[in-house]
Amino acid sequence: MTDKELCALIREDPARGHAALYDTYANYMYAIIFRILRDRGSREDAEDCLVETLLEIIRHIGCIEPDSLRAYIGQASRNRALNYSAALGRRARGTVPLEDAPEPSETHVEEDVEQKALQSRLLREIEALGEPDSTILIQKYYYDRKSPAWSG
Asked: Which fold has domain 3-99?
């Protein structure tokens, strides 16, 4: 099936056209996506990215010239995989994009200040206990580590 026939089928019968699009291009798309995500993501991540890319292509299929369908699909797969890879990297570092960060709230500022003051005072009191008690308490409750003598 040519790309022109595929685009015509998608317009005439979307369900069959989408299935034909998947059958024709899924392996090509997956190869591009997996090559980009292989070092950062899992097989499931590549599959999720493939589905997202297919949905994007289906949404924009009316704007794509049939003569450039394969090129559009390849570029869309590459772009989506690069974005997905960047998101996986941010998630691994524990960072979020600025637009996803929660808005600061004035009601929480006072609570945050009080909490920091309480934490500072608690840390000073623990340090006043001296060694080895202060180290044991910090390791146990701050770093959630277990003492070899306690485990068993």
From this structure: Rna Polymerase Sigma Factor; Chain: A (1.10.1740)
